[in-house]
Amino acid sequence: MGLLAPSVSVDAVMLEARAAALGKRSIKTSAKLEGITLAIRCTDLTTLEGKDSEGRVRSLCAKALRPRPGWPNVPSVAAVCVYPNLVSVAKDALRGSSVAVASVATAFPSGLSNIEVKLADTAAAIASGADEIDMVIDRGAFLAGREQAVFDEIVQVKHLCGNVHLKVILETGELGTYDNIRRASDLALEAGADFIKTSTGKVGTNATPPTALVMCEALRDFARRTGERRGLKVAGGVRTTKDALAYLVIVKETLGDGWLDPKYFRIGASSLLDDLLMQLEKEQTGHYAGSDYIPKD
């Protein structure tokens, strides 16, 4: 399989101005309530720490299933994202539910290993029951101009995944320019990514509105060219309801209402859900819940 044609050049000034303008959109009353509920449905509740344990994952899964016990209109999240060795624990805790189990793989977060190790990492997660794989690209290879190697790795991982959804993490904070982010987005989509994802959450700069916008433009152009709808996942640093709603606006205005669905949009986060729940109660009751009323994972 060959590489794609040259990418379009990104006008950084126009991109940042549009992202800033979209971020200022006012969302009120029923639209805000709908947006908060959608953001909950689109959340990949995530724990990717060295101290993760079976107990921690089971607690996180309980929260993913019932973010606000006693509130029947609060939906479950889209997925729980864990390391490969904890996939079976999450799978057991979520059995019979609509919540998917996502696993990072391919030498997360660096992506610096040989392809045999990356494929074994992915295969182990799938064998344990992962519904989705979040792989990382080798940013060093990409920035050194070895695009074919990056492309081929994505192809091989996607082939191994089969029907298991593959999210390809670009680690946009390490790519340097919007042109590189656009190029990496196009490359991942052509190689078979079901989703393109901003970040691992493990570097200094993670998801930002301009990077999400340039990735949305890549998704839009890919859909126009091929007729295929692929997804976006923003991750890293998305902590507040205001952040989440801003990304929903970017997706809606760039890609359309059809992407406002967990099948095509995800937010990878750990602390965001608590703020969404507090804001949801504020919209529904007129006052904020104390943090003690929000279930701890």
Layout of helices and strands:
Elements: H1 12-23, H2 29-41, E1 43-46, H3 54-65, E2 79-82, H4 87-93, E3 100-105, H5 115-127, E4 132-136, H6 139-143, H7 147-161, E5 165-169, H8 178-191, E6 195-197, H9 209-226, E7 231-235, H10 241-255, E8 265-269, H11 272-285
Parallel strand pairs: 1-2, 1-8, 2-3, 3-4, 4-5, 5-6, 6-7, 7-8
Helix pairs in contact: 1-9, 2-10, 2-11, 5-7, 7-8, 8-9, 9-10
CATH class: Alpha Beta
Helical fraction equals: 40-55%
Largest sheet geometry:
8 strands, parallel, barrel
Rounded average pLDDT: 93
Structural category: alpha/beta
Rounded to the nearest angstrom, the distance between the terminal CA atoms is: 44 Å
Report the CATH architecture.
Alpha-Beta Barrel
Strand order of the largest sheet: 1-2-3-4-5-6-7-8
**CATH T-level fold name:** TIM Barrel
Catalogue the unreliable spans: none
Strand content: 5-15%
How many domains comprise the coordinates? Answer: 1
The total of beta strands comes to 8
Helical region count? 11
Shape: globular
| CATH 4th-level superfamily | Aldolase class I
Please state the CA-atom Rg, rounded to the nearest Å: 18 Å
- Helix and strand element order: HHEHEHEHEHHEHEHEHEH
